[in-house]
């Protein structure tokens, strides 16, 4: 089916192939939504034999729809139910997860944040780095009435933006979605609640690190050059003739930054509904679908579950889009970036 990996012969692996999770994680997801799916079964939720669908079967239908991105008709055919049942079951599952699994996507408390910072420093050398930011376009077809220019993005697709901040394990710790893909990355950032919290000193406001000359390094995240350089958002140095310390900073910054890029590639590779062109989605419902896919991504990590290795997209998660260059540099951001650059060990020092 269009370059898809063959279904694994091993039972447990085949289960993972279809639903992305182990049976144990699948049962945990069923436990989250069980009460809602039992107490409020959608109308007409009867299978061919006239019996009510079990919670497990409802969850299987919804997760297969999200994982495969296949049409409701073909998902229904695989489970012996009609298109409208797939539609109703998937939506009930999404509503329930959105309400009951929210605790799987939260900004970390200080203790957990210290752990994230230590792990990120161990892999990248960056002190006080709290995570990585990136964004991706979720492409859709819109009915003619709604096909306004707002939703038409730089690659001439209609799309909705998803911005994610991830920790050292590629777990989403903050997401923003619902905005049109026509915006720039930096505009999306500035419209986000996260930006407003950071600017108000209510996020990334944990303990500062002191470097050699009594200079302070505050908490920050890393992003690509499509983002502005801010006191709490470190972007790469740009230009032709960069000094050795600048090149060193860029290499380490990229190590941390790529976690965001890889997380989005894994998200879209696992939950193919976000990677295929979404057929006329309800734009009010699409943010819920995106959020639930992010929750499922985190639940797999929180349950110490493992995805099959070839699930992540082979290409960039936003294939076909040109890189944006923001070129906004906040003066305090520049000072902090220079302090971090001076603090970093060079690669020679590390390898000795």
UniProtKB/TrEMBL annotation:
Its main location: nucleus. It comes from the Eukaryota. Its cofactor is a divalent metal cation. GO terms for cellular component: ESC/E(Z) complex; PRC1 complex. Residues 133-298 form the DDE Tnp4 domain. InterPro entries: HARBI1-like (IPR045249), HARBI1_dom (IPR027806). Transmembrane segments: none annotated. GO terms for molecular function: chromatin binding; hydrolase activity; metal ion binding; nuclease activity. The keyword Zinc does not apply. It is found in: Nucleus. Keywords: Hydrolase, Metal-binding, Nuclease, Nucleus. PANTHER family: GH03217P-RELATED (PTHR22930:SF85), PTHR22930. Belongs to the HARBI1 family. This is DDE Tnp4 domain-containing protein. It comes from Aegilops tauschii subsp. strangulata. The lineage of its organism: Eukaryota, Viridiplantae, Streptophyta, Embryophyta, Tracheophyta.
């Amino acid at each position: 089916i269009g370059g898809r990996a063959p279904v694994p012969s091993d039972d447990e692996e085949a289960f993972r192939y279809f639903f992305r999770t182990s049976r144990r994680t699948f049962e945990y997801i069923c436990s989250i939504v069980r009460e809602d799916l039992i107490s409020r079964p959608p109308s007409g939720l009867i299978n061919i034999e006239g019996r009510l669908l079990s919670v497990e079967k409802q969850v299987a239908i919804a997760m297969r729809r999200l994982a495969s991105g296949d049409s409701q008709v073909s998902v229904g055919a695989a489970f012996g139910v009609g298109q409208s049942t797939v539609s109703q079951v998937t939506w009930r599952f999404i509503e329930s997860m959105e309400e009951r699994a929210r605790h799987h996507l939260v900004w970390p408390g200080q203790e957990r944040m210290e752990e994230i910072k230590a792990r990120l420093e161990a892999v990248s050398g960056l002190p006080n780095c709290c995570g990585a930011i990136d964004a991706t376009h979720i492409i859709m077809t819109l009915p003619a009435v709604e096909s306004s220019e707002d939703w038409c993005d730089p690659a001439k697709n209609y799309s909705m933006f998803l911005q994610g901040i991830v920790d050292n394990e590629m777990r989403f710790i903050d997401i923003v979605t619902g905005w049109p893909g026509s915006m720039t990355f930096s505009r999306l950032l500035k419209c986000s609640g996260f930006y407003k919290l950071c600017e108000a000193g209510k996020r990334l406001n944990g303990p500062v690190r002191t470097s050699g000359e009594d200079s302070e390094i505050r908490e920050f995240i890393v992003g690509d050059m499509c983002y502005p350089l801010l006191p709490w958002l470190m972007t790469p140095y740009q230009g032709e003739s960069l000094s050795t310390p600048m090149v060193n900073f860029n290499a380490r910054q990229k190590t941390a930054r790529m976690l965001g890029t890889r997380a989005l590639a894994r998200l879209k590779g696992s939950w193919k509904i976000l990677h295929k062109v979404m057929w006329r989605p309800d734009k009010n419902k699409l943010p819920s679908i995106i959020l639930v896919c992010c929750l499922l991504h985190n639940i797999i990590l929180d349950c110490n579950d493992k995805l099959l290795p070839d699930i992540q997209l082979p290409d960039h998660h936003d294939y076909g889009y040109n890189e944006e260059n923001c070129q906004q540099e906040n003066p305090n951001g520049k000072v902090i970036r220079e302090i971090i650059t001076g603090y970093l060990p060079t690669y020679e020092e590390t390898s000795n």
